[in-house]
Specification:
- The chain has about 260 residues and is α/β, with parallel strands linked by helices.
- The chain is built from eight helices and seven strands; from the N terminus they run H-H-E-H-H-H-E-H-E-E-E-E-H-E-H.
- Helix 5 packs parallel to helix 8.
- The longest helix has 16 residues.
- About 40% of the residues are buried.
């Protein structure tokens, strides 16, 4: 969960989310606003074909699109990760759980964020860290297949509409914490979402000029930016979309129709 940065004292909820984020980090290895205040697919943003096609967006899962904490509460009788005295026991229980990552719910505003990102001309990639449990890789991919496919966006510069998005798994979590191809093959074309599973500490290996990482873990910023990319610290979808617009990656759309 995100470690929030603020000039004021964090609330209790923010503090708890920061603690959860630190636990995840340790385990995984180390443009104006739109007229509407609500984040909805119809009113939040559209893509500027002339400028946005040069960007490549990578979006995290846990804490951004997927509610990891809700999954922990489900297997621990309502207790959050911060309520558990033994983090090792938590991860062991997650490893034993049936399809833990495949059955996680969306975050409260995750769908609204994805509904905007998926309309990008280059089609975003998922960049998600995995624990040592091998099954987590296929489980995260299964979640993406079920939840992200939808329909190809219509009226965008990158291609036509109709048909499901293709969800393509690329496993980069190599032996001895290496960032290397384990399985799959990247497909760099419109309408294909590459789901890249890797060791979290190696996410920066996907950085580069005009490569955008949306992630709730602020600790990943420095390495990503040193690689030439742009880091968006995610705390909620509204602020993330505002940041993308401010940087010219998305353009505001005044259409507020349903």
């Amino acid at each position: 969960m995100p470690k929030r940065s603020s000039s004021t004292s964090p609330s209790s909820a923010q503090y708890k989310k920061a603690k959860t984020q630190r636990s995840l980090s340790a385990f995984f290895g180390g443009a104006p606003e739109c007229p509407s205040d609500e984040v909805t697919p119809a009113s939040s943003a559209s893509v500027s074909a002339s400028s946005s096609s040069e960007y490549k967006i990578f979006c995290d899962l846990d804490g951004v699109l997927v509610d990891f904490e809700a999954g922990v509460k489900r297997i621990f009788g309502g207790r959050s990760p911060d309520d558990l005295p033994n983090q090792s026991a938590m991860w062991a229980a997650i490893g034993r759980a049936d399809r833990f990552y495949a059955t996680l719910p969306w975050t409260e505003d995750g769908k609204a964020l994805w509904d905007v990102l998926r309309d990008h001309p280059t089609t975003p990639s998922i960049l998600t860290g995995v624990p040592r449990s091998m099954k987590s890789r296929s489980e995260k991919f299964a979640w993406c297949v079920r939840e992200l496919a939808g329909k190809k966006p219509t009226g965008t510069a990158g291609g036509g509409g109709g048909g499901d998005l293709e969800i393509n798994h690329v496993d980069m979590a190599g032996k001895k914490s290496a960032h290397e191809l384990v399985a799959g093959k990247r497909k760099e074309k419109f309408g294909v979402v590459n789901v890249i599973t890797c060791w979290s500490k190696n996410k920066y290996r996907e950085s580069g000029r005009n490569h955008i990482l949306i992630d709730d873990r602020l600790s990943l910023r420095e390495a990503w930016e040193e690689g030439g990319g742009i880091f968006i610290h995610h705390t909620n979808s509204k602020l993330t979309l505002e940041s993308l617009r401010d940087k010219g990656i998305l353009n505001c759309k005044s259409n507020t129709s349903n």
